Amino acid sequence: IKGAKVLNLFAYTGGASLAARAGGANVIHCDSIKNVVSWANANMEASNLKDIRWLVEDAFKFVKREARRGNLYNGIILDPPAWGHGPKGEKWKLEDMINELIAAVAQILDKERYFLVLNSYSLGFSPLVLYDLLHTHFDKGIIKKTEYGELYLPEPSGRKLPAGIFARFANV
Fold first, then answer.
1. In the Cβ-directed half-sphere of 131, how many Cα atoms lie within 13 Å?
2. pTM for this one?
């Protein structure tokens, strides 16, 4: 979405941030690990892009603060780890946090022009779990068509190597 405000949470080395910026979006890239955000910045420079806003911050805390501020985003990309630690050693376990995370994200997604992408690598979830989470927390008028399924890497032999699951919806 050209000119859209896009928030990439748990953004790691920035592939989705770079793609959104290359498409003309105004991007905020948020990850709690400084070295990873520096790596993403180097990837931006190597891609001849500019003007991505870099945040070294706990993604969940940032989303809750944005909701209190009333800030809205046209696009939200969520790529949370199955588990990890925040910048101050806080424990993160997706199974324990995802319900609250999706509820908070629902508060900051624009209701007119929007998209949301959610990836998961947790063995405790199926694509249907992500589908149900989105349908639980987002207004029925927003979720007109949800796509969900498995992410995989194709092998030359024809086999598909599992790489996670996803759910997404859009009105753009």
1. 10
2. 0.92
